[in-house]
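Weekly modeling sync, notes
Attendees: S.R. (lead), two postdocs, one rotation student

Agenda item 3: backlog of single-chain predictions. S.R. asked that every request posted to the team notebook include the full sequence so nobody has to chase files. The rotation student volunteered to paste the first one in as an example of the format we agreed on. Action items at the bottom.

Example entry:
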Amino acid sequence: MPEKLRPSFTFTEDRLRQLRQVVPEAFADGKINWEVLREALGNYLEDEEACEEHFGLFWPGKRQGRRLAALPPKGTLVPAPGEGVNEDKTHHIFIEGENLEVLKLLQKSYAGRVKMIYIDPPYNTGKDFIYEDDYSEPLEAYLKRTGQMDEEGRRLTTNTKASGRFHSNWLNMIYPRLLLARQLLREDGVIFVSIDDNEAHNLRSILDELFGMENFIAQFVWEGGRKNDSKFVSISHDYILCYAKNKELLQTNKSVWRTRKEGIDKIYRKVEELRSKFGDDYEAISQSLREWYQQLSKNDPAWQHRHYNQVD
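Predicted structure, as returned to the notebook:
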């Protein structure tokens, strides 16, 4: 029988351990002394008398999403030797399971060690969002919880925000997963998240909160080439949001964002050769370079695929 891996790590323990390293005097007998912590935070602590309004994205279930991320995992990782491809040589790991549970299970061994994360979450199409989480709820329950309906089922407002339920359900799904994903990233790590127009604005607000606006890298537009029957504008693209865990650290090592394309040195040498021959006659240089390129493409069809943009 394969041995089961039973992690004893929780997200909360990790956060408390980090806090204990920064403010050890705020802990006594394993508990937090809130008065000492308040004194240590000093001017960084919000004044209780101040206005409680903040800039940010808020929705029903956000607090519960934090709690869900902090709950310890209930499952275990069971090795499946023999089911991989060249597993003795590659040492890659493929995990199949509910992604929130898996993210929790990975925390003990991989927290702060992952260089890149890519997430392709289910898109919210505006219909009832169905996902295997504890946040599935009927419309009536949502209206009661958000104060739009009383316990007897009477509407308390004529302008209900039922459509917000669809956004809330999607946000409740993605929020704890992004919380846990950030903990896996190392300091020079980056995360990419695919999304479409339905939740792109909400996703960016969440990522701004979790990673910090200062760590935003880019919002890539990805042309999918798909067709649709939109009545107004036929949208054929999605987005990929990119954030760094520590953008300032990345900026000190710009080489991590650049890789030299295969064969580019050969192209540069040819360009220098043609410049020596034709001087400032760029038309002649361009024509000769294209002829040289076409000859290479005949001899090696893969060359055209790899280097078309470099020559063009």
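Discussion: group reviewed the output briefly. Residues 264-311 form one domain.
Action items: rotation student to repeat for the remaining queue; S.R. to check formatting next week.
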